[in-house]
Write a structure and sequence with these properties.
- The protein is 37% helix and 14% strand.
- With 309 residues, it is of the alpha/beta class.
Length: 309
């Protein structure tokens, strides 16, 4: 294992090769099943709620739902952006459902959760990008499930400081915005997003609440180089990001971007070590790691939420 960051960075990208056609053994998971999984599924249907676990076809859905945890997706299930890695539907969303925060809070109570993750689709047609509903959801959960920690995974709000302020003033225990990929691939992977918006969102979140915990995530396997991954990690540390997740991109369907490369488990371990050398306080790096992976443990270890403003 390299002992320094310099030793871990290859001088150039690996030689180009055809996209892999089959998943390696370390990426195969069991089909979701079990009583707890079925309970969570019925609960989501009865409350008319969405989860990113289903919409984004997360490979960990069986493990997480089997433990009684889920990542709620608010503001509907139709996104105004068309990222080429994401399985969530794109189109014209329905009007905002202002009762949704109440139903999310009821589901959190019914599941007996001690930690919950709230994310959303992009809602670029809304003046605040959906920030008000995020804040309402945080507050409703705190009212109905005292002691439950709340993590939010928000859009970039096009870099809007005012929209971000609405969320931060509700004092989530962890604020997350995923950068997803390296700057060179932004236009290809998420054409309506900008690297500058992502960095502004994370930087401003820390400026608005310096004691708060911030988090971001990267997918690998889309054609980035090793050195580019390290540069993004450095950028994230430069704006004070505390928690980093690194996972393998998996093609949701033939209509999405193909996997350019499957990273080996030992490469994820190397990236984890480099991230800790850079100063991240918590790092999850592995083939099946997703943004909410082990989120409850992160909240227990690092969160320091203050009363909502």
């Amino acid at each position: 294992m390299p002992s320094t960051i310099r030793e871990a960075i290859p001088l150039e990208a690996a030689p180009a090769s055809p996209p892999p056609s089959r998943r390696p053994e370390w990426l195969k998971v069991r089909a979701p099943q079990g009583e707890t999984y079925e309970f969570v599924l019925r609960l989501m249907r009865s409350k008319r709620l969405h989860t990113v676990c289903e919409e984004a076809r997360c490979p960990n859905i069986g493990e997480c739902w089997g433990r009684g945890t889920a990542t709620f997706m608010i503001l509907g299930d139709v996104c105004t952006r068309s990222c080429r890695f994401c399985a969530v539907k794109t189109g014209r969303p329905l009007p905002v459902d202002w009762d949704e925060p109440n139903r999310v809070a009821e589901a959190v109570r019914a599941m007996g959760l001690s930690h919950v993750v709230i994310t959303s689709v992009n809602r670029d047609e809304l003046p605040d990008g959906g920030a008000t509903l995020f804040a309402m959801t945080i507050r409703r959960i705190r009212e109905r499930v005292p002691g439950c920690t709340v993590e939010v995974l928000t859009p970039d709000f096009k870099g809007s400081l005012e929209a971000l302020r609405i969320v931060i003033e509700a004092r989530p225990d962890i604020f997350n915005h995923n950068v997803e990929t390296v700057p060179r691939l932004f236009k290809k992977v998420q054409p309506q997003d900008r690297y500058e918006w992502a960095m502004a969102t994370l930087s401003n979140a820390k400026k608005l609440w310096p004691e708060g915990v911030t988090k971001s995530g990267i997918m690998v396997g889309l054609g980035e180089t090793w050195a580019e991954i390290i540069e993004v990690m450095k950028d994230l540390r430069a704006v004070g990001v505390d928690i980093l997740t690194i996972g393998q991109y998996l093609q949701p369907s033939r209509h999405h971007l193909p996997v350019e490369r499957f990273y080996r488990p030992e490469e994820f371990e190397e990236l984890r070590q480099i991230a800790y050398e850079l100063g991240f306080k918590w790092v999850e790096s592995g083939p099946l790691v997703r943004s909410s992976y082990r989120a409850e443990a992160q909240a227990r270890a690092l969160s320091r939420a203050a009363p909502a403003a």
